Amino acid sequence: MIREMTKLDFEAFWPCFESVIKAQESYTFDPNMSLEMAYKLWCEMPLKAFVWVDGEQVLGSYYIKPNGMGPSDHICNCGYMVDVDARGKGVARQLCEHSQQIAIELGFQAMQFNAVVSSNEIAVKLWKKLGFKIVGTIPLAYRHGKLGYVDSYVMYKWLLT
Question: What is the pTM of this model?
Answer without folding.
Answer: 0.95
